[in-house]
Amino acid sequence: MASLPLFLVVFLVLRGGLISGQQNSDGIMEREELLGLFEVLGGLLEDPSWAQDHPQPCDETPWPGIQCEIGDENPPSFHVTKIHIGPDILTPPCKSSASLSSSLLKLPYLKTLSIFNCFLTTPVTLSPSLFGALSSLETLALVSNPALSGEIPPELSKITNLRVLSLSQNNLLGNIPREIGGLVRLEQLDLSYNNLSGELPQEIGGLRSLTILDLSWNVLEGQVPSSVGQLQVLQKIDMSCNMLRGLIPPNVGQLKRLVLFDLSHNLINGPIPETLSGLENLEYWVADKNPINSEIPQFVGKLKNLISLSFSGCGLIGKLPNSLSSLKNLSSLSLDNNSLNGTVPTSLGTLPKLDQLNLSNNQLSGALSLPEDFIGRLGKRLDVRGNNGLCAINPLYKKKGISANLISAPVCLNASGATNDTALAGEDKEPKVSERMKPFGQYPVENNSSGSPSNSNAKMVSFGFVVCFLCLLL
Ligand SMILES: *[C@@H]1O[C@H](CO)[C@@H](O)[C@H](O)[C@H]1NC(C)=O
Ligand SMILES: *[C@@H]1O[C@H](CO)[C@@H](O)[C@H](O)[C@H]1NC(C)=O
Ligand SMILES: *[C@@H]1O[C@H](CO)[C@@H](O)[C@H](O)[C@H]1NC(C)=O
Ligand SMILES: *[C@@H]1O[C@H](CO)[C@@H](O)[C@H](O)[C@H]1NC(C)=O
Ligand SMILES: *[C@@H]1O[C@H](CO)[C@@H](O)[C@H](O)[C@H]1NC(C)=O
Ligand SMILES: *[C@@H]1O[C@H](CO)[C@@H](O)[C@H](O)[C@H]1NC(C)=O
Ligand SMILES: *[C@@H]1O[C@H](CO)[C@@H](O)[C@H](O)[C@H]1NC(C)=O
Ligand SMILES: *[C@@H]1O[C@H](CO)[C@@H](O)[C@H](O)[C@H]1NC(C)=O
Ligand SMILES: *[C@@H]1O[C@H](CO)[C@@H](O)[C@H](O)[C@H]1NC(C)=O
Known about the structure:
Its EC number is 2.7.11.1. By secondary structure, the protein is of the alpha/beta class. Helices cover 17% and strands 19% of the residues.
C-alpha cells in the first residue's frame, strides 16, 4: 500500500503542472506545435473541421491517429510524437488531394510518421527539404501510396535516428541513394514493390544495425554488393523479383543470424559459394527461377536449421546430395523444374518434418523407394512427375487415393517388383524379359547408357517398342 500515496503525489504534481501550464499559455501544448499539427492533418484529411472538433488532440479531444507524450520542460507540455493514417483509422478518410505539409517541421518531437493508402491520385514526392530536417523521426512508413512517386532523396540519410524506413508499395523510381548507408541505427529497410532501378550501392554495408532488408519487386540490376556481408545482425534478406545477376558474394556466409534469404526471380549464377555453409541460422532459403546452372552444394546438409529450401527452375544439375537427409527440421523441399539426375535418396523419406517434396520435372531415375508412411503423410504434396527414368518399387504407389502425383511413376519391372502388381496381369512374366524390358504403359524406363536424355520421350518409346518386338521374335 506504500505505493499508492506516492502514485497520488506524482499524479497530483503532474496534473497541477498541466493545469498551471494551461493557465500560463494557450493550452497544454505549444501553440506553434498545435498549429503545425492542424496544418499537417489539414493537408491529409478530408474533414475540414477536424481542428475545430479536436482543439486539444493530445488531451481532451484525442484522435486515434495521434499520440503525444509529456515533455520534461517546466511547465510540462504535450508534444506530438506519432501521426498514423492507415486502414485502422477510418474517419475521416484522406482527401483525394492529400499531400505532405511542410508544417511537419513544426513537430520537432515527431518520432513516428506512418501513412498508409492515402496518396492515391495527386502526385506526392519525398521532398528533400522536408525529410532532411525531420531529425527526430525514428519510424517513417509511407506504404501503399500509388501517387507517391519520384526518387528517394539522399537527404533522407540525415534522419540519423531512423530505425524503421518502410517505403513499400509506392511508385518510387530511380536509384537507391548511396547516402542511405549512413543510417547506422536503421533496423528495418523495406523498399519493396516500387520501381527502383540501378545497382545496389556498396554503402549499404554501413547499415550496421539492420535486421531486415527487403528490396523485393523492383528492377534493381547489377550484383549483390559484397558489403552485405558486413551486416552482422541481419536476419532477413529479400531481394526477390529484381534483375540482380552474377554470383552470390562469398561474404554473405558471414551472416550468422540470417534466417531468411530470398533471391528468387533474379539472374543469379552459380556455383553457390562454399562459404554459405556459415549461415548457421538459416531457416528459409529461396532461390527459385535463377540461372544457377550448377550443382546443389554438398554443404547444404550443414544448414541444420533449414525449414524450407526452394530452388525451382534453377537449372540445377547433378545429383541430390545425400547430406539433405541431415536436415531434420526441413519441412519443404522444392527442387522441381531442374536437370537433376541420379536417384532419389531413400533417406529423404526419413526426414521427420518433411511435408512437401517437389522433385517434378527433372531427370531423376532409378527406383523410388520411399517409406510407406512418408508417402501416405505427404499425399499429393509429394510430386515426382516428369522424371522419365523414375519407377516405383512399392505397390502402394499404385493404390487408389495415395497420390495423383505419384501415379505417373511406373512400377519398376524387375523380377520381384513386378509379380504383385495387378496392372501387369497377363503380361509376359518371363524373368529374363521383365528384367530387361522396362517400358510400362507410355512411361519407358531408360537404359542407363541412354542415361541423360533430354526428355526425348518419343525416342525412348520407340526404343521400348523395338525391345518388345525383339522379345516377341524370340
Ligand atoms: C517502371 O519504370 C519503367 C521505366 O522507368 C516504366 O516503363 C514502367 O512503366 C514503370 N513501372 C511502373 C509500375 O511504374
Ligand atoms: C529445429 O526446430 C526445433 C523446434 O522448432 C528447434 O528447437 C531447433 O533448434 C531447430 N534446429 C535444429 C537443428 O534442430
Ligand atoms: C520450368 O522452367 C522453364 C525455364 O526456366 C520455364 O520456362 C517453365 O515455365 C518452368 N516450368 C514450370 C512448370 O514452372
Ligand atoms: C548427371 O548429370 C551430370 C551433369 O549434367 C552428368 O555429368 C552425369 O553424367 C549425369 N549422370 C547420369 C547418371 O546421367
Ligand atoms: C511441383 O512443381 C511444379 C512446377 O515445376 C508445379 O507445377 C507443381 O504444381 C508442383 N507440385 C506440387 C505438389 O506443389
Ligand atoms: C527390383 O528393384 C528394386 C529396386 O531397384 C530392388 O530393390 C530389388 O532388389 C529388385 N529385385 C530384383 C529381384 O532385382
Ligand atoms: C504378393 O502378394 C501376396 C498377397 O498380397 C503376398 O502374400 C506376397 O508376399 C506378395 N509377394 C511379393 C513378392 O511381394
Ligand atoms: C549401367 O550399365 C553398366 C554396364 O551395363 C553397368 O555396369 C552399370 O552398373 C549400369 N549402371 C546403372 C546405374 O544401372
Ligand atoms: C542399353 O543396354 C543394353 C544392354 O545392357 C546395351 O546393349 C545397350 O548398348 C544399352 N544402350 C542403349 C542405348 O541401348
